[in-house]
Queue: 2 jobs
Job 1
Amino acid sequence: MIQRQIKLRLKPKQEALLNDWLWQCTGLFNWAIRKIELDAQGGVYYTKQGFQNILAGHSRKMGMPSHTMQAMLTQAYIGWQRCFKKLAKKPRLKGMRNKLNSIPFPDPLKQPVQNKIKVPGLGQVRFHKQSLPDGKIKCGRIIKRASGWYLALTIDAEPNIKHTFKAKNNRVVGIDPGFKDVIALSDGEKKKATLEYNQGLQRLAQAQRGHDKKLVARLHERIANRKKDRNHKLSRHLVETCELIAFSKDNIKGIQRKFGKSVANANIYQLRQMIDYKSSSCDRRYVEVDGKYSTMTCSACGSRTGPTGIAGLRVRYWTCGCGTKHDRDINAAINTLNTAVGSTVELAA
């Protein structure tokens, strides 16, 4: 399964209808969240299929596809199921600070003809023409963003990856994430941060002082797109050139609470996800390793003589008692690789 997003070119009536559906879906989701919560307090529970059909016949009154309503009810049901299983927090109600921005269409869609695709309830919808992979469109979801409306298609097809790397590539690397350098590799290579957030910070501040909410949202989206583009290119480069990739898994949320913007600009979690799914598509091995003690441990002798604590962050180069000189980030990347190689050997055994 792969996903492709196409930007829609809506007529005024279609856009007004989607805005109306979005408002109705928000109320429907909030109603479902509260109903499951209150009925559970009274000992009343539902099956997934039973909760889907709880509003059977209401789609005509609301003027929207029935399967879209069922998908919204299912979304609320799954949210509570994950909460009951302690896999996620309690689902939040949608509102001004937590907006619902998508409308699901769970049924298969017909293949687009030229630059038009048929969406239930909307009819033929134009989109900016782009190539789509051959395969059955299993479902779709219309998403509202600051730059317009998009249709996310889930297509039953295999990813078409151009294998530009050599078949026999024995390069193995450990990766230590950072903020001045996005990543440091165990073989000494470093990728500097491009600071997408800082580059657009002045224009963003001007829009916020001017209380232009649409422009603020558009600038945030543009910054996010630049980060995503950078991570796509970086993850692709790593997957093409490395057979084994070991990534140091740190507590990103905890670090972000201390250091703020620099951590958010690096967007390390998104990079980890991209390397993960691209590695599986290219028959590469990807391992996430706990980064505990990786900085303070000497990669040569294994003794913990390196810098520690917040004050130790200033120390970028240090010398171990065994006489080995270390670059802080590269040493951590080497320790990550050593740990990963040990774990993969155990799994193979």
Job 2
Amino acid sequence: MAQLSIPRPPRQPRLGVDIGRVIIDGAAHPDGGDTAFFEGDEATMLATPEVPDAVASIARLTQAFEGRVWLVSKCSPRTQERTLRWLQAHDFYNRAGVDPGHVRFCRERAEKRGHCAELDLTHFVDDRLEVHAAIHGVVDHQYLFGPQPGPVPEYTIHVLTWPQARAHIEATLNG
């Protein structure tokens, strides 16, 4: 006798976004790339630019997701503190509409899987293949952000820019 399967109810859309090289563009720092963010003094760190169109795109997505947007980043305790200061100094929370309580940190990239599961994230934007491998099977829609050195796994959508990412994400929300 065949067993009937009960369809799973649709999940409430929830977005996760990495921070480094997805929101904060350390590589574009006028004083020397990522090292200026990690090793520079406070003024140098705060001068690190944002990824083009990141904040405006996240603001639109925050509205589309009705506030269900979280930042999930892997970093050291020192970088965590610098990241929080950067987000505050750049008025990120107000400009993007993201709740300041919706920021999560972990020490290893694979630990993002636990955050995704706990928060029941349905969408995730990250620039690291290692993260996408770790969250595969937990997050329905995965967006591999920015240029990549090699092939892109079929379970991700490769997006080079925030307007591209936003368009792909919005398409999943609109059916």
